[in-house]
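FAQ

Q: What does a record look like?
A: Structure on top, sequence underneath. For example:
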């Protein structure tokens, strides 16, 4: 099982690496593709497609680390532990471990015969990975719907309806999402299997094979499928930009402009909220308000010297994004840096 898991951990790392590469390619082409970010499934602030994809990458980088860390803990050879108390024969456990490519022999014979932590950690890392992929697939399904229209999926990763000729269904994304419950089940099975077992070996432990073998098969199918899905995505920048024209996603930037002008954020927030109410009632965007509209909303704007004519440029989505140039922000300069860092990270994990 240790040898089997060593290969399984390595395959997972390789698969995540391929997904990260595909996401970096797509993000690199969309560093300046503006779109809304969301909280509570409501439009929140201007962002970019690259920034959103890099959020996926951040989660996947942690996933890769989990498989790598778990592999390091599992990298010990149990041979020589015998049934429970080791052997009285003159075995060279260090030599056996080295010959099989393990970092070390296991530290305790009783633990080695009863330990299935490596199986649990593989299942846990797989569960977290699938939880992430399921979330990403849900977003792809939403974005490719007519209700969002942010992207199309090439025919290579969709199928037709059994009865409705006009439809192309996001089957690959749905199948990956559907595998998540199966993987979660394997983790729960492994944990439940061991929860009441006394040390050392018990026959119950043979059931670990069913869960681990199924997990490996699932991960081996899901990761290449998701990489192919990413490569099949065709962004629609015009639709993403159009979604920024309603819902006032630039409101936070107006509040922050007041802060820059010396207004306390509490007051700037209240003034901007009033401006949003004025704009909504008039069916206008914040960038279309007049000086009179701003004055109606709050005297904070006039006291801060903010003119309505200045807002169109200041509150443009690209300008809002560019100002968010802190580390971890969506500004194109930052996302370009993060893509470059991720590419180096991917290269550094090859053969590790």
């Amino acid at each position: 099982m240790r040898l089997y898991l060593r290969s399984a951990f390595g395959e997972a790392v390789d698969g995540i690496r391929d997904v990260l590469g595909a996401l970096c390619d797509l993000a690199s082409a969309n560093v300046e593709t503006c779109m809304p970010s969301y909280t509570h499934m409501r439009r929140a602030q201007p962002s970019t497609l690259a920034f959103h994809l890099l959020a996926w990458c951040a989660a996947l980088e942690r996933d890769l680390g989990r498989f790598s860390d778990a592999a390091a803990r599992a990298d010990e050879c149990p041979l020589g532990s015998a049934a429970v108390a080791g052997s009285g024969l003159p075995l060279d456990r260090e030599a056996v471990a080295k010959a099989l490519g393990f970092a070390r022999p296991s530290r305790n014979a009783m633990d080695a015969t009863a330990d299935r932590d490596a199986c649990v950690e593989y299942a846990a890392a797989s569960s977290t990975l699938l939880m992430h992929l399921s979330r990403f697939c849900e977003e792809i399904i939403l974005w490719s719907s007519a209700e969002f229209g942010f992207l199309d999926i090439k025919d290579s990763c969709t199928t037709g309806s059994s009865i409705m000729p006009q439809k192309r269904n996001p089957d690959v994304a749905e199948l990956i999402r559907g595998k998540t419950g199966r993987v979660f089940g394997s983790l729960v099975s492994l944990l439940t299997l061991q929860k009441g077992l006394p040390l050392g070996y018990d026959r119950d432990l043979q059931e670990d094979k069913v869960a681990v073998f199924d997990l490996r098969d699932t991960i081996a199918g899901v990761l290449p499928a998701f990489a192919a899905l990413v490569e099949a995505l065709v962004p629609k920048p015009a639709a993403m930009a159009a979604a920024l024209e309603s819902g006032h996603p630039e409101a936070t930037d107006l509040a922050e402009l007041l802060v820059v002008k010396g207004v306390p954020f509490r007051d700037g927030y209240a003034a901007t909220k009033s401006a949003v109410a004025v704009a909504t009632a008039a069916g206008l965007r914040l960038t279309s308000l007049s000086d009179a509209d701003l004055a109606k909303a709050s005297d904070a704007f006039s006291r801060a010297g903010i003119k309505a004519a200045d807002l169109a440029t200041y509150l443009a989505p690209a300008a809002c994004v560019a100002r968010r140039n802190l580390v971890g922000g969506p500004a194109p300069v930052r996302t370009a840096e993060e893509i470059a860092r991720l590419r180096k990270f991917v290269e550094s994990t090859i053969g590790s």
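Q: Is there anything notable about this one?
A: The chain has a mean pLDDT of 97.
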